[in-house]
């Protein structure tokens, strides 16, 4: 199944000690990192293995190429979009 790479991500985050629960009832989880976080080799291997097994080699290579491009994160894109909306010169009609 193509969404199994999420399982690989969750397992690798657990191995690295980055996965936390959002409530006492374990209703949701969040992976928290800092820019200086070092990922253990074992957790990287787990993520790569699970991603390849779920996506296949062709899609995995596309995924790896897409990730390596980098670029703006979601927060930067949303702030940019918000600035464009706030600074729009379009008239408002009530």
Task: Provide tags for this entry.
94 residues; mainly alpha; two-stranded antiparallel ribbon; 2 strands; 57% helix
Overview of the molecule:
This protein is mainly alpha-helical and 94 residues long. Helices cover 57% and strands 6% of the residues. The chain has helices spanning 5-16, 41-69, 74-86, and strands spanning 19-21, 29-31. It has a two-stranded antiparallel ribbon with strand order 1-2. Strand 1 and strand 2 (29-31) form a beta hairpin. Helix 1 packs across helix 2. The radius of gyration is 18 Å and the shape is globular. It starts with a helix and ends in an 8-residue tail after the last helix. The model has no long low-confidence stretch (mean pLDDT 80).
In short:
This protein is mainly alpha-helical and 94 residues long. The protein is built from three helices and two strands, in the order H-E-E-H-H.
What is the CA-based Rg, rounded? 18 Å
Largest sheet: 2 strands, antiparallel
Mean pLDDT: 80
Secondary-structure-derived class:
mainly alpha
Oligomer: single chain
């Amino acid at each position: 199944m193509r969404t199994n790479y999420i399982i690989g991500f969750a397992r690798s985050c657990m191995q690295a000690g980055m996965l936390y629960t959002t409530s006492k009832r374990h209703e949701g989880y969040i992976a928290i990192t800092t820019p200086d976080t070092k990922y253990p080799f074992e957790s990287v291997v787990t993520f790569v293995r699970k991603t390849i097994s779920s996506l296949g080699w062709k899609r995995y290579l596309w995924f790896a190429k897409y990730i390596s491009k980098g670029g703006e994160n979601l927060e930067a894109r949303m702030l940019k979009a918000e600035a464009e909306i706030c600074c729009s010169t379009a008239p408002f009609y009530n």
